[in-house]
Amino acid sequence: MEPEWGPLSVLGAVAAAWLLLRATWELGRGVYVYLLPRARRGAPWLRAHGAWAVVTGATSGIGKAYAHELAQRGLNIVLISRSLSKLELEAKEIERLHGRNTRVIVADFTGGLEIYEAIEAELQDLEIGVLVNNVGMVYSRLPQKLLNGENVAKRISDIVNCNIMSVVQMTRLILPQMVTRGKGIIINISSVTDSHPWPLLAMYSASKAFVRSFSKAVGAEYFPEGITVQTVSPFLVATNMTSLFKPGLLVKTPQDFARKALDTLGLSLDVSGCFSHAVQNLGSGLLILTKTPTEMSHTSE
């Protein structure tokens, strides 16, 4: 007996086919971006954008790993963070290990507009080819509701300044010289939380959604002028911010993550950073798409 094909059956079949096509496309894209060595751009291509790279939040975690990896690929490094002693330590390590020139700039990105005049003055005479907007913060290491904890107003202001304002202002400072030269790379470190709201990480996920949207818009505006703006949205990386998680199959070390993420430059403007995280991102995205409206509403309560 042949099955009856009503409207709901047809709709279900179309939805299943679309999900299968999307999964196939994303897996194929992941293989191209993350696993094909011949597709990757080399260090000479990276250095051709400018002699210096600027990295915010450069003394730990992903920022530190990006600074070292960029230096290993031949760029001089400007490290920006709030601790002078840590900055000087990392600068010496980069010079010792990679033989590159360094500069350090002390800045607390929870501050407002007043911090950027000094940063701009320090960067004035440098040919900057790469900007890594990495600095970021959460309420606390454990997820919690918006109003929980102490000093809520200050914490909200700090996250807006650190996670959002820093990306926009650092882009404002460095983008003009890139446009003048007709080349430059801006890497904005976002998060897997940028794709939809995350209860108990409300401010963090919203700030990363801003980073994603801002990156795509500015990237579209300046792509014709030779500027690459890449959004990197990792899953878990073993940093101070995610100290409860240890490196393993799903959780990358910062060094491994930065190396693989930099290999995607010139191949994609929107990446998870590595193949493992791309697969996790695909899986979570398909899970969200297959939830019913009722399930989605229960999830967000």
Would you kindly provide a written description of the structure presented here, covering whatever features stand out?
The chain has 301 residues and is α/β, with parallel strands linked by helices. 50% of the residues lie in helices and 12% in strands. The chain has helices at 7-35, 43-47, 61-72, 84-98, 116-123, 152-181, 202-222, 254-262, 275-289, 293-299; strands at 52-56, 76-81, 102-106, 128-133, 184-189, 227-232, 270-271. It has a seven-stranded parallel beta sheet, with helices on both faces. Helix 3 (61-72) runs parallel beside helix 4 and helix 3 packs across helix 8 (254-262). The protein starts with 6 loop residues before the first helix and ends with a helix.
Estimate the helix proportion, in percent: 40-55%
Apparent shape: globular
Q: How much strand?
A: 5-15%
Low-confidence stretches: 286-301
Summed up, what is this model?
With 301 residues, the chain is α/β, with parallel strands linked by helices. It has helices spanning 7-35, 43-47, 61-72, 84-98, 116-123, 152-181, 202-222, 254-262, 275-289, 293-299, and strands at 52-56, 76-81, 102-106, 128-133, 184-189, 227-232, 270-271.
Show the helix and strand layout.
Elements: H1 7-35, H2 43-47, E1 52-56, H3 61-72, E2 76-81, H4 84-98, E3 102-106, H5 116-123, E4 128-133, H6 152-181, E5 184-189, H7 202-222, E6 227-232, H8 254-262, E7 270-271, H9 275-289, H10 293-299
Parallel strand pairs: 1-2, 1-4, 2-3, 4-5, 5-6, 6-7
Helix pairs in contact: 1-9, 3-4, 3-8, 6-7
